[in-house]
Amino acid sequence: MRVAVVRPYGERIRKRMFSAIEAAGLEIRSDDILPAHSPDRVVLEQIGTRTDHVLLVPFHAQRDLEGCWTNGFQLLGLLERIEPTFPWIVLMPVSRFGAAGAHLTLSSSNGDGPSSKVREKVLLIDEEGLDDPDLPGRIRRHVEQSGSPEGSSAK
Prior knowledge:
The chain has 155 residues and is an alpha/beta fold. It has one domain: Response regulator (Rossmann fold, 3-Layer(aba) Sandwich), CATH 3.40.50.2300. It has six helices and six strands. The strands form two sheets. It has a four-stranded parallel beta sheet with strand order 1-2-5-6, sandwiched between helices. Helix 1 packs across helix 6 and helix 2 packs across helix 3.
């Protein structure tokens, strides 16, 4: 199963995250990596054609190339609006500083965060635990329990 990488982190974190994903039996190809700071509209165009991919979407807030603020959950909300079935499984790395906000958003049912359907498909991954030997197994279990993205088969 392939992974589409959205707005990847810097090399130090990216290398560790990619290693865990590949150890979980998932594949990352260079043409499935969307550049850092890509505007949401560009990401939506690219991801919309990859409904059979697992998504790697960092939680962190950042400015895109057009100067607009964006974050991982905001992007998932936009994806759900254009594809209400939300066929993707999501891996979302989060920093120690962003963890409280990410967990609050993931557990929120007040309508401010993503729908429960989307929240169930997100695995938050603490950046401090990227070298945990159990991480590839957690990723594999999350993908298997969340169901395969459209047109794909889990390994």
